[in-house]
Each structure stands twice: as structure tokens, then as C-alpha cells.
Design brief:
By secondary structure, the protein is mainly alpha-helical. The protein is built from 19 helices and no strands. Its main location: membrane.
Amino acid sequence: MAVQPTEKGMAVSNHVESREDAPQTMEGSKYEASEEQDISPAEGRKIIHKLDRRLVSATGVMFAISLMDRTNLGNANIAVGVRYADVTKSLAVLLFFVPYIIFQWPSAILAKKIGPRYFLPGTCLTWGIVMTCTGFIKSWKELAAMRILIGIFEAGLFPGALFLLQVWYTRYEVHKRYGTFYLISILGSSFSGVLAFAFQQMAGVNGWLGWRWIFIWEGVLTVLIAILGFFLIIDFPEKAQNSRKFLKPYELEYVIRRLNKDRGEVGVEPAFNLKEYLKSGLDIKIWAFGFVFTLNTLQSYSISFFLPLILNNKLGFSVGISQLMSTSPYIFTAFWIFGQAWFGDKFHLRGPIIIANSLASVVGLCLLARTKSAGSQYFGTFLVCGATNSSIATVMAWQANNIRGLWKRAFASAALITLGGTGGIIGALVFRSQDAPQYFPGMYACLTACALTILIVSALDLHFVRMNKKVDRGEATIEGLEGFKYTI
């Protein structure tokens, strides 16, 4: 567990050029000394809930439509009219993730430079337009072009949303917010199968096949959500006064004071320097978090891409029933995520939760691979979906808890999602049609991912415990801040 660092009360100008590698005491800003407006605990909770309504709900809905759009090939594939060869399907998925990975780094910088208020809805709008156009393709080459463009435009949403949420909340509030963000996205995207089933009922309208309507209407829905995002998304704390009808000045000062008391970041922002930005990559724990994230997105994307096919080919359900049944595991997952997020924030735990989830995922994969009952296999999909997606939210919070510095957060968010995207690529390759109905290579890949997750998380926690003991003895300073401790 980690404790809050002790406050030294060093006032700092709002435009300090700070060296992040130099040890600091708990920094304030121009906001820290402003105590004239008393805020009761009840009023404080209302202010934070105001943040939740604007930030968590808007980013969660946008990410939900993102997940729906990137994984709708599975639903379109089992719909009448799209029966691409297995290698073609996998290539279509790969063509999304390659640009998605490459554009994480410039997107993270643009999100910080432009500001989330315009950047996040703008990316959503552009890929929504492209998704709509996918419904009018006439060849494999056109599908490939659409998937590449969607990968480019979607690249900015996830790291930008992670960055935005972690700069507005304290370290032991962020897991619930990430959990709720991911809960909203999972619940929303879980209806992908239901919506696909409904949209494909329009087959024959205008002479078009059902799969075209899946892409067209999901694209239109994305554009509408992007327009809503322009009215809801707010900027970073130091610029939030520019966001329409948001916090009153004294409410904003209250939020910034508590953020500086937690980790001393707001108002201490060095000018962007590419060398210093890339220097963040020398911190090995950023890559360890990213690799754990990869191992869990591998499993999560595998299930989301191929759950309709598993239900259809492995368990023998009809196309329509398979699409409808693919929703239930994600509804179950939403409750799993939020329960663990509440537990993690209350007890300041991250790593042990991820290890427990990996063990649950092993049980689910064994049920899928080795039992013959359709009921037990279907229950296995609930365990895998719940465990892996909850671990994804937990890793996001774990990383946010254990780093400091705004540009380092931008780099770390991009690194996390970049490595997570490689999990999507692997997930697209390990579940193949020729392995139906057992899909053993995919199952074994996911089991290996669980084992590696347990090893890496255990090693990180041992290191964090050792470093926290050094801080207690006054022998070390973590993240350049006296009294700062790692969250295990």
C-alpha cells in the first residue's frame, strides 16, 4: 500500500520551468494558498461528482463507440454478405492496429498541445465519418483503406482520455473513475451484437446487404456522439476556466488544491521538449505496465473479435442468437470492473487484483477449452471477459498512481496504449477459422498471457515494496518527490 506524501508547502509560480529529475517537496501553485473559500466535505463531493458527470461519462461513451467500431468486423463477418477468407479478416484487423499503434505518440503530444476539449471529439468525428463510408465499399482494397484511416483517427482517443482523467483526480480516486469509464465503454460496446443484429435486418433496403447497414449506422451513431462530446469534454485543470458552464472559480481552486496536495503537479509544467519527453522512456516500469496491459488486451480483444464466431461455430448457436448472446458477458463484466475498482481505491491495491484476475481468466479459458457442456463453456467467456477487462482498468490506474509529471504522463499513456495495441494484433492472429471449433492455439496463447502477467506483476510489487521501505528509512526519493510512495 502507499501513503500520501507529506506536504511541505512550497509555493511555486504557475509558469515554473521545473526539472522533473530534481527532488522536490510537495509543490503547490498559485492555487495552493487560496483558502478563503471554505468547502465542506459534502460540497467537495458535489464538485467531484460534477467532474464525473462531464468527464467520465463523456469519455466513457466515446470509448464505447470506439470499441464498437473497431470490433464490428466480427459481427459483419457472420452477417450475410461478408464471408472474407480468414487471412483477409486478420489483415483487416491488422490494418487497423498498425496505424493505431504508430500514431499513439504524435496523438499524445497533440492531445496535450491542442487540449482535450477539441481534440477528443474531433478524432471521434473523423473516424465516424470514415466508418459511415465503410458501408459503401466495393472491394477489399477499399476496406483496407478504411481500416487504416480508422486506426489513425482512433489513435488519439484512448491515450487522450486516460491522460485527461488522471490529471483531474487524486491517486486513490482514479481507479473508480477508470473503472466507471471502462464500465461505460464495455456496457456500450456490449450492445454491438444487438445493434448489428438490428441493423442487418435492413438487408434489402436500397438493394444493400445487411453488413453495409451495420457500418453505416454505427458510423452515424459515432458522429452524433462526437457532436455531443464537443459540448461535454472539458480542458485540463489549469485551462478549465475556458470550458463552458463548468466549475465556478472557487470550485476549480478547490480541485487544484487537492490535486497539488496529492502529488504537486498542477501549475508546474515545463515547456515541451522532445528530448525530455522521450527521456521518460528510460523508466523501465512504464514498459512493464505496458507489457501487462498488452497481455490483457490480447485476451480481451481475442474474445471481443471472435466471441460471435465462438458462439456460432464452437457452441452451435445461430447467427442472430450468437450476436445477442455476445452481449451478456460484457454486462457481467461491468459489475466486475466497478466492484474491483471500488475495492482497489479503498484499500490502495492494484497488483494483487491483477493477479487474482489472471487466475480467474485461467479458470475461464480451461472451461472454454476442455469442457463439453455449452453452459460451462459460455460461463467461461464470462470469466475471461470479466477478468481481463477489469485488469485493463486496474493497470491504467496502477500506472497513473506510480508516475509524476504532465509530459511523463502523456508519454506513459501513449506507451501503454501502443503496447496494448500489439495485444490487439496478436489477438487477431491467434484465433483462426481453421482452428474451429476448439481454437486451441488461441486458448494456449491466452493461458500463456495469464502466466506472464502473474510473473511481471509479482516482480513489480516486490520492487515497489522494497523502494517504499527505503523511503520510510529516508534512503530514497521516488519520482522526484519527497514522501511519495509506490502503490502496490
